[in-house]
Amino acid sequence: MQDKYITVTQLTRYIKYKIDNDTNLEEVYLKGEISNFKAHSRGHFYFTLKDEGSRISAIMFSSNARNVKFLPQDGMKVLVKGKISVFETTGNYQIYVTEMTEDGLGNLYIAFEQLKKKLANEGLFDEAHKKPIPKIPEKVGVVTAPTGAAIRDITSTIKRRWPLAEVYLFPALVQGEGSKESVTKKIKQADDFGCDVLIVGRGGGSIEDLWAFNEEIVARAIYDCKTPVISAVGHEVDFTIADFVADRRAPTPTGAAEMCVPNKADVASLLMQITARLEKDMHHIIELDKNKLSEIMNRHIFKDPVSIYEVKEERFSNILDKLNKNILLIYKEKQNEYQKLKESIIFKKPESILDDQKNKFKLIVAKLDTLSPIKTLERGYSITKKDGHVIEKTSDVKKNDKLEVELKDGNINVEVI
CA-to-CA distance for 121 and 114, rounded, in angstroms? Predict the structure, then answer.
């Protein structure tokens, strides 16, 4: 009875054998959306390929994965080629992918959003970095294709609006392979050329046609540009990464031309208005100055200028009178001092002053003589010294000290016992 039972492994091997030998499954072409993507450290890709109704596990070995020209990510729509087989350990069927390419607009939109988010986080779109567009540029640079509607619309619009501006074309490849490098190179050349403003763009087209202006190197070239940049890519509804990085975004190439140069008719009208205001202001200033001049001329000083000197002369006379009066007062004071000095005793009896000074001198000498230590010695006192210093109390000496006693008629050396 048990002979009819087989193991799970036997069943899985049988299913794998049947699938591996099905010629319809040896080369399968699938399209779908990537989910659960994982890049192994050894270079293999593991992911799930799904659509609205189903999903299949997928693996792409490193030998094939290294040929993929983009980094797969969740949400990308891809086209894959591979072989269907069964992984025995789990019993799951899966596709072993040998080739993978991106599937059209879905992936372009994802790439657009990813780059937009990256550059926004780096600050490349910030208003603080936007440079002002000059009001009246002399040199306008244009990076676009040398043929086509874009360059014709730009040049004709600038010539019509402001013929004084010179237009310099920096011809670039604006779509297809090599276009992003070409546009980047021409932006740098135009920036070094010394233009006042730079228009970067092209005419309308599909998202694939406009894709060069969604490339990171083009965005960074615009951001690094010292010259103010106006982006003009496609039609009004088209938005590219270049539009977010540029200093100004124009809806069309014609709009960019209108944005970068003034309209000569508007400038002429503005000049007429300014001229009229200048004339009005000049007349107003002249009238004000005439009134001021008339007011000055009517002042008393101009009608009777001699009166200025009369006032000054009167003040001078008053000051001179005061000065003479003060000089006389000082003279009389000094004369009185001199008279008092002449009448003093020093002039009448100078010898009396000398006698008085002699008496004072004798009195001082007598006081000094009384206080002299020599007089003290003559009265029977003595002066005791130790090492040249006068001893004032007994505690200043001790046993065996050598002392010197000064008397009125000489000195005696003694020793303390």
Answer: 11
User: 174-222: per-residue pLDDT in tens?
Assistant: 998 999 999 999 999 999 999 999 999 999 887 888 999 999 999 999 9
Q: Side chain identity at 237, as an amino acid letter?
A: V
Residue 172 CB coordination number (10 Å): 24
Nearest Cα neighbor of 96 from 70, 63, 72 is: 63
Task: Kindly compute the dihedral angle of the four CA atoms of residues 372, 373, 377, 381, in this order, to the nearest 10 degrees.
Answer: 130
Q: How many CB atoms lie within 10 A of CB 102?
A: 18
Contacts 24+ apart (CB under 8 A), 213-217: 213/174, 213/183, 213/240, 213/241, 213/242, 213/243, 214/108, 214/111, 214/112, 214/115, 214/240, 214/241, 214/242, 215/180, 215/241, 216/115, 216/118, 216/119, 216/241, 217/180, 217/181, 217/184
Residue 105 has a pLDDT of 63
pTM for the model: 0.50
